[in-house]
Write a structure and sequence with these properties.
The protein is α+β, with helices and mostly antiparallel strands. The chain has one domain (2-246): TIM Barrel. The chain is built from 8 helices and 23 strands. The chain has helices at 25-42, 61-65, 72-86, 101-104, 147-155, 165-171, 203-215, 228-231, and strands at 2-6, 16-18, 46-49, 91-94, 110-114, 118-119, 125-130, 136-140, 143-144, 176-182, 186-189, 196-200, 219-223, 257-259, 267-271, 275-280, 287-290, 303-305, 310-311, 320-323, 326-328, 333-335, 338-343. The chain has a 6-stranded antiparallel β-sheet with strand order 14-15-16-23-18-19. Strands 8-7-12-11 form a 4-stranded mixed β-sheet, with no helix packed on it. A 3-stranded parallel β-sheet has the order 5-10-13, with helices on one face. A hairpin with a 4-residue loop joins strand 21 and strand 22 (333-335). Helix 1 (25-42) crosses helix 3 (72-86). The N and C termini lie far apart (59 Å).
Length: 344
């Protein structure tokens, strides 16, 4: 089946989109076996299926598809079931399959959402002088979303006939859930007295995304594909931050805690076996908060601030941590912060 509707973002406008009729058993079997052969030849551990579900279809497509018997997602689930039979020992990784979890989740291992904490378009812009160039360059910074936005998107479905991520996870706990957030470069001044900027990996956004995901104990990830060309000459090739290799262990509590209350929190925390995460709820605040020592292992003698790569001062002692908002000098913008602390 072919639709002439264009799909994707601006880079893909004008290209036709093709949709397979998975109601046909022979077609499902052929595609599943073909993918199995490709995976076997490649040596990969599995397959990623992007945009798994009918929400990505053109508006009129499902009406044309519907025959009164089986929906697009029911047929799609039948295909993924056949694919699982063809590759029983391989990983099947979906994208936003949670929306129709009953159809897809019984047959997949991982699922993800994109850009629910940060994204690489729609952020603040500015015209700046980048070192090594002779003219002003228009740049776009990472766009941040608030804790309230993230929480709403986690607990509430986008459409009445869809699942919320939290509901899908509760019904199918075997599926690992990944938050994939995207970033732009962060532009910093070479010298405080100079107007030249250099591009750097957006570490504040990466930490914010990591901490936000861990509040609901998800697998966090950040895509920096668009950062590469901007930072490779200035960042020594060290694009990725080590935050994604931090092992916090298992949560020591059932859920996150909003302080001082759920209606107007100033920060959100969650404690783990090996550390804790904190997210500030406002862009302008400098937060000082008291760590709940009842959730910290009794043998802890220090607290490591992984963002600043240093020990927290006066610990043990005051048992307080101070977090400043994320500042972006190119646009003179401030955003909420996320931090990760490890017990020593």
């Amino acid at each position: 089946m072919c639709s002439e509707h264009s799909t994707g973002d601006d880079d893909f406008q004008g290209r036709p989109a093709y949709f397979y009729d998975y109601r046909v058993p022979a077609l499902r079997t052929f595609i599943a076996n073909t993918l199995r052969d490709w995976i076997d030849r490649s040596g990969y551990d599995g397959i990623f299926i992007d945009l798994l579900g009918s929400y990505s279809l053109p508006d009129n497509f499902e009406d044309e598809w519907w025959d009164g018997n089986i929906s697009y997602d029911q047929a799609g689930g039948m295909f993924v079931e056949d694919l699982r039979s063809a590759i029983p020992d391989k990983i099947i990784f979906g994208n936003q399959a949670y929306r129709f979890a009953d159809d897809y989740y019984p047959h997949i291992d991982y699922d993800m959402r994109e850009c629910t904490v940060t994204r690489d378009h729609g952020g603040s812009t500015a015209n700046i002088h980048i070192a090594g160039t002779n003219s002003l360059t228009e740049i776009t910074e990472t766009r941040y979303f608030s804790w309230q936005h993230y929480k709403t998107r986690y607990f509430e479905p986008l459409q009445p006939d869809e699942f919320a991520p939290a509901t899908a996870e509760a019904l199918y706990p075997h599926v690992g859930f990944v938050d994939l957030n995207k970033v732009q470069p962060r532009y910093l001044k070479i010298d405080s007295q100079d107007d030249e900027f250099v591009a750097r990996m957006d570490r504040p956004a990466a930490y914010y995304g990591f901490a936000m995901s861990k509040l609901v104990d998800r697998l966090p990830s950040t895509s920096d594909a668009k950062v590469w060309d901007a930072v490779k000459d200035w960042d020594g090739g060290e694009l990725r931050t080590g935050v994604f290799f931090i092992d916090l262990g298992q949560p020591v509590e059932n859920t996150f805690h909003e302080k001082p209350n759920t209606t107007a929190p100033t920060y959100v925390t969650r404690y783990f076996e090996k550390g804790l995460v904190v997210v500030t709820a406002a862009a302008s605040q400098t937060l000082t908060f008291q760590v709940d020592m009842s959730k910290v292992p009794p043998q802890t003698t220090g607290l490591w601030d992984s963002f600043h790569s240093e020990m927290v001062e006066n610990w043990p002692g005051t048992n307080q941590v101070t977090i400043r908002s994320a500042y972006y000098p190119a646009t003179q913008s401030r955003y909420p912060s996320g931090r990760v602390y490890l017990y020593q």
